[in-house]
Hints:
single chain; five-stranded mixed sheet; 9 helices; 38% helix; alpha/beta; two-stranded parallel sheet
Amino acid sequence: QGKKFIGMGVAFPGLINAAEGIVTRSVNLGPDWKRFPLRDVLQESTGLVTVIENNSNASALAERWFGGGKDSADLVYVNLGEGISAGVMMDDRILQGFQGHAGEIGHIVMSENGPSCNCGNRGCLEAICGIPALLKRVAEELPDCAADDPLRRIWQTKGKIELADIVECSRSEGSCAWRMLQEIGRFVGLAVADVINLYNPRTVFVGGRLAAAADSFIDMLCATARSHAFPEMACATQIRISALGNEA
Length: 248
């Protein structure tokens, strides 16, 4: 109250043309957002100068300015959430790419015959390790978990499983939740190895909603990344859990 706003920034999940202020496509939010002029709509409705950016790019900037990346002009922020993408900073600048869509690591194909992805392909990292994919797998596999498994007990009590339940139960080594997150750590580690080989970052930060469980899979992620990336680059790259949590 009593303060003047000079502008507004919006972090949006999907393919963003930041220069034109357009959402090119958001595969997880549906067809209504295709070629949506978000910047112009917001500027007209609020009267404020508006800038839009991909949410992972915005998170990479936050990590650089306010988080653990204050000493890293070359960093990658891996956003593990409903979707999976990355914000890449090289020489202290966001890497946008020709169309402004760089960083879509969630659509690296991990398995050609894998599950269908919202992007239209099959076997993408996002279709295997995104939060919706994890919740679907939990629903399919819980009946086969041991009767005393902590996640199965929650399911029998509540009749459903939420991400917070998986995060909590993953702290029990050997449990169903722990095993599933180990597999996520392995797949994400393979993608991070590609990121290291392509961009040679000083630091890779693992963030997003699923990073709340990162203590359960970060060792697997790091070991996989380092065993699959070019050794000289892998040894020089730090892989860290983002401390920004949901505020990135």
